[in-house]
Amino acid sequence: MIKGLFDGKRWLALWKAIPEYYVPGFIMTLKISLVGLAVALVLGVIFGMLSTMKFRPAKFLSRIYVEFIQNTPLALQVMFYYSVLPMLFSSSGFRIPKFALGVIGVGVYHGAYISEVIRTGIEAIPKGQSEAAASQGFNYLQTMRYVILPQTIKIIMPPLANQALNLVKNTSILAMVAGMDLMYYTDSWGSDRGFFAQAYFTSAVLYFVICFPLARLARYLEIRSMRLPASKKINGKEDAAC
């Protein structure tokens, strides 16, 4: 296998296969990552807010979602969506598009993790902020939208960037269900020709192209958040930094 890594004919065959295999897979991976991240953010905000409500059934619902999703493998979840969801439409013959399957898989999975990020961000804001908003007549949703969530941005950005990074890498699980993503095309081309070294090395480079900037962004945001002052003095009194 190592000897084949330096075979010029194999690399030439790979170069010719890039437009047909790697470009569509790369684009599909990007699309699933972007839309899946949007779904994960929506779910994360919703369940993160539910987990901080005083209404116990809401907190209970949030914990069920978070604990179940976090404690079951992503591969199992994707196979469940692939095998079970079509049964809901068995009479109509409708099949779930692979793109939608990918978005549901990574979106629901990472939504559970992002909800925990949102929850910790909300809990990091002093309770006095919520009390002040309530004194002004704000309800819970208004308090979250206008007061609490805007202040959590600086706190949650580093872990959110890490979740985006992990989401991109986890799209590779869709190769199990012919998800038409980068990993699927890599397996397809490598298996057909037996050029595994070239196939997987090229795929690794393309994943690196997507993930490395996200990793650098996460690191930058983490360092920046550590440099932010925890508090500042105003008229001799200590006030929380925005």
Task: Considering the chains and any ligands shown, give keywords for the structure.
single chain, 242 residues, mainly alpha, two-stranded antiparallel ribbon, 2 strands, disordered C terminus
How would you sum up this structure, described in words?
With 242 residues, the protein is mostly helical. Helix content is 76%, strand content 3%. It is built from nine helices and two strands; from the N terminus they run H-H-H-H-H-H-H-H-H-E-E. The chain has helices at residues 2-5, 8-50, 56-70, 74-84, 98-124, 127-135, 140-170, 182-193, 196-227; strands spanning 231-234, 237-240. Strands 1-2 form a two-stranded antiparallel sheet. Strand 1 and strand 2 (237-240) form a beta hairpin. The protein is globular. Mean pLDDT is 84; it is low at 230-242.
Could you give a quick summary of the protein structure above?
The chain is mainly alpha-helical and 242 residues long.
Q: Rounded to an integer, what's the Rg over CA atoms?
A: 22 Å
The coarse silhouette is: globular
Helix content: over 70%
User: What pattern of helices and strands is seen along the backbone?
Assistant: HHHHHHHHHEE
Count, helices: 9
Mean pLDDT: 84
Low-pLDDT regions: 230-242
Query: How many strands, which pairing sense, and closed or not: the largest β-sheet?
Result: 2 strands, antiparallel
Question: Which secondary-structure class do the elements indicate?
Answer: mainly alpha
